Description:
Blueprint: H1 2-12, E1 15-17, E2 23-25, E3 31-33, E4 41-42, E5 54-56, E6 59-63, E7 66-67, E8 69-74, E9 88-93, H2 107-110, E10 124-125, H3 128-137, E11 142-145, H4 154-166, E12 170-175, H5 181-187, E13 193-197, H6 203-209, H7 213-225, E14 229-236, H8 244-257, E15 263-267, H9 282-294, E16 300-303, E17 315-316, E18 323-328, E19 331-335, E20 368-369
Parallel strand pairs: 9-11, 11-12, 12-13, 13-14, 14-15, 15-16
Antiparallel strand pairs: 1-6, 2-3, 3-4, 5-6, 7-10, 8-9, 8-20, 17-18, 18-19
Helix pairs in contact: 3-4, 8-9
Amino acid sequence: xxxxxxxRELLSEHTVAAAAELVRAExxxxxxxxxxxxRCHVRPGKAGVCLMRFNRDGELRVPGGxxxxxxxxxxxxxxxxxxxxxxxxLSFGMLGCNFHCEFCxxxxxxxxxxxxxxxxxxxxxxxxxxxxxxxxxHDVRIITSTYNEPLITSEWSAEIFRLASAxxxxxxxxxxxxxxxxxxxxxxPCMSLMNIDLKCFDADKYKRLGGxxxxxxxxIRRAHEMGLWVEIITLVVPGFNDGDDELRQIxxxxxxxxxxxxxxxxxxxxxxxxxxxxxxxxxxxxxxYERGKAAGLAHVYSGNLPGMVGETEHTDCPGCxxxxxxxxxxxxxxxxxxxxxxxxxxxxxxxxxxxxxxxxGRPSTFPRSVDL
Length: 372
């Protein structure tokens, strides 16, 4: 308990005022937070569901000025498979989440202040300028907010993204998608990418995880309609969301938004509080792949089992079937795209394959931490 109190005090010292677009003040000193789908009504001295956004004397204070992790790793790790394949991304995270998934793969950072076992302290206190300069210094063309839930730290992300966009750097979220129209509009001028975790296709299951199913599906539709490049990921957990009907429903929904949205079906490994001791077998990912293709999705990928999932790590042309990008895990071994087009039939492949007149990304490096 003492450690958690110390962390709370430390984090409260590194906050900024919430963006005007993401808060509505009431006459009694309470505030309504609009950074995520919970739309918390926060009274003075209290915090929202995420525990990171809190009311101090009638002002909503939100995280800023630190990172829990800052690293350069392949864009495929996010995963974004249709964004500058083989390029490096500078990834930063903070602490906290608006969900409490029992199978969380990043629980040490996401469950800070909620679970006494979690809560690794901030690794570096810094300015947004320092984060962007690190990307420039390392010739990185993509910055992503990830590791924890970025929606609850959107003011900090936006500060970084505005500076990065001025440098020609693509910016994106790796998010659970439990957003609001207000936060999407707030981010829209400085963010162009969004990987959204569609965890299941069941409202009761989402309630168990701490969110609302409709908020996530609405975010997926809105983000796509706004012109953000969207990729969807589903961590396929045995006994939770690996049934044929649920996989089909997820695939059908994504296809109804756009058949060009890539769907990443990734293998679960036993983690955190989950009572399911079995990791996801490759055969389950193969079933998910078949459901996605049957729904009409152009691009379905299997993840977290490199070299064990047949041809489903690669990108093929949906028009002529030509192998365009070859991958194993996070590494790109071949890329035959000409700009964003198939070299054989000329079909345009949906994605963000070209940036500022350059060709696709250079070979990925191994993940490495960045000191500011």
